[in-house]
Amino acid sequence: MTLATSPLGTTGATTLRVLQQLRADPRTVVMLLAIPAVLLTLLYYMFSEVPRVPGQPAPFDRVATAILGILPFVAMFLVTSIAMLRERSTGTLERILSTPISKGALMGGYTVAFALFAAVQAAIACGLAFGPFGLTVAGSRGAVIGVCVLIGVLGVALGLLCSAFAQTEFQAMQFMPAIVFPQLFVCGLFVPRADLPTWMQYLSDVMPLTFAVQALEQLRDQSQPTGLLWRDIAILAGFTVAALALGAATLRRRTD
Questions:
Q1: How far is CA 247 from CA 135, 202, 230, in A?
Q2: Residue 206 main-chain phi, psi, to 5 deg
Q3: Rounded to the nearest 10 degrees, what angle do helices 59-89 and 208-221 cross at?
Q4: Which of 45, 54, 149, 152 is most buried per CB count within 10 Å?
Q5: Secondary element (H or E) of residue 61
Q6: In this protein, which residues make up the domain named ABC transmembrane type-2 (predicted)?
Q7: Rounded CA gap, 7 and 171, in Å?
Q8: Which of 156, 130, 139 is nearest to 247 (CA)?
Q9: How far is C-alpha 173 from the chain's CA centre?
Q10: Is the pTM of this model over 0.70?
């Protein structure tokens, strides 16, 4: 087995191909990198006049820390699901899978390529939040960026998984309200989880975005890593691996 046909080699080749495709689509690149920063700017000015409650984090700090993870999650979910569907509908995926590449290596290449974009996206958004917008967290800023990247990779994995069940780009976009919005409602961003109805608390316990928000809140409030933080990171990693494995298992060569 040569390097070119090894799992590592085919994964690297897929990563390079996806990055080259993205480079040829500058509008998508600009949207991926700029829109989170624009949305974060709107969020900052939205909370700029809200009075601070004594003993509580500043209103912007309370919300923005979680938003830093939610933005790459949503963006990567949408872009990845549409990109993989387009590969299948144009016949590109069928041609690729006729080569010695495995489904796992193909999924790995997509994950690495979009994870790089998630990392750049998180770095830009966090740099803006910690710099001009003065976001303060008790934990490490580097840890915040790292968790945001992991959340973005989770969005990639779920996007790849959901693309297997869509036949058109419109159907892929419909997974956004079906998969992402319910998680936003029960993750504790709008209403503390303890104040949710009991059945919604049970629902939040099986939603990956719940643990993403909880991990970022731990970094916002705690100066040292806690056991809860490490548990949440492990759960996020587990969801990511499981979604990628299911995505590889359900990957179809083309859209019927």
A1: 36, 25, 26
A2: -115, 10
A3: 140
A4: 152
A5: helix 59-89
A6: 27-254
A7: 31
A8: 156
A9: 15
A10: yes
